[in-house]
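Practice problem. Given the sequence and the SMILES for flavin-adenine dinucleotide, write out the predicted structure.
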Amino acid sequence: MCPRPRSERVVVIGAGHAGVQAADALRAGGHDGPITLVGGEPVLPYQRPPLSKEHLAPGGTPVPLPLRAERFFADRRIDLRTGVTATALDRTSRTVLLDDGAALPYDVLVLATGAANRVPAVPGADLAGIHALRTLGDAQALRAGLSRARSVLVVGAGFVGLEVAAAARAHGPAVTVLEAADRPLARALSREAAGHVAEVHRRAGTDLRLGEAVAAFTGRRGRVTGAVSSAGTEYRADLVLVGTGVAPRTALAAAAGLPVVDGIVVDECLRTPDPAIYAVGDCASHPSVHTGTRIRLESVQNATDQGRHVAAAILGGARPYTGVPWFWSHQGALKLQIAGVRLPGDENVLCGDPATGRFSVCRFRDGRLVVVESLNRPADHMAARRLLAAGRSPEPGRLRDPAFCLKEFAREPAVA
Ligand SMILES: Cc1cc2nc3c(=O)[nH]c(=O)nc-3n(C[C@H](O)[C@H](O)[C@H](O)COP(=O)(O)OP(=O)(O)OC[C@H]3O[C@@H](n4cnc5c(N)ncnc54)[C@H](O)[C@@H]3O)c2cc1C
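Answer key:
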């Protein structure tokens, strides 16, 4: 059982998915004290996933989708401060210092600082025409660039890189993707699912180069003209998107002496070793009941569920966080959904026929279902989330029956 923290003045640093949800759930849960939400970006908090999807699609809407309407914050007495960055924490006086000169006292502090893009340390990385994608500003610049580009190079076949590659193909230019690993989405997907993803992009006309990292960018008069890969191959491009992953934003926590190991270290109730400070979302590393290890997730589900969870803890209902991780990605016609967290060594069993383009890879650990990767099979995904939350699992052998249906299995009464 985790002890109840004090909850008079709550300050939330970071107005992304996690921070906004924490503030919302705190007020909705009955918290009556002041809530201040500090966001470094100078805009109303918005949804990040559309930035690499609808926002980039030809004819798509370039308007940001707000996380909450503008009046929501005033109506809920949430003091939203946008365009303001927290620069230091004084844990002794329990004060946050802001770059506009303000000092905010807190009784409870929630760190929801998210993550920032990693930039490969190679020559030419600062040339004009090289884009990253994390913020609305990044997305606006990328969208404008895509509408003019004749050849696009994407560095990194992760989720953001592949979503941008699919959107770029839809705009018309030639698209090349360089990926250092031997398959796309290597950290997130089984070999079977990743193979299908690679095929979908190649069929769409993308030149997907596996086992090749970027060694240097080339340019003329300060503008990118292409890149040279680790294999020595030269690629021409007038627009580059670097999608080589993110690093958690932990500088504030680390400078205040909080432990950081690939994320701000929190316990199972999402609290740091300082009982007045919690951390949630992309910036936090928590012990997972699903893997038995410490993990840091980068997903909307994780950010919003942890935001809700931390609000409950602040309100006195602290309990271990057990949310089932899930994720989605849209890459052209491919709708990819993942429930659960993979570990190396999980056993893969196919559900459905990859040749149809609609199948799932079910992963088992010690004979129990732990992950379902669904490609254009949304019903499997929804069933998987229900099964994983209930701790239910089909026998792996049952999936080999072509008539087996995960959705039907999830409807069967649980056997004690
Ligand atoms: C292009 C893109 C597409 C994505 N697509 C998907 C998807 O399809 N599905 C999915 O599940 N996930 C997706 N994600 C991931 C998902 O958006 C993140 O996991 C989620 O945004 C994490 O929320 P967060 O609140 O932890 O962090 P963030 O959303 O990064 O928010 C953190 C905020 O804190 C602010 N901040 C940081 N430090 C300070 C400071 N010192 N002072 C003040 N403010 C500060 C930052 O400016 C930022 O606004 C995508 C991400 C990107 C970038």
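Check your answer against the key. The pocket of flavin-adenine dinucleotide is lined by residues 13-19, 38-41, 48-49, 51-52, 85-86, 112-115, 133-134, 160, 249, 252, 281-282, 298-301, 303, 327-329 (CB under 6 Å).
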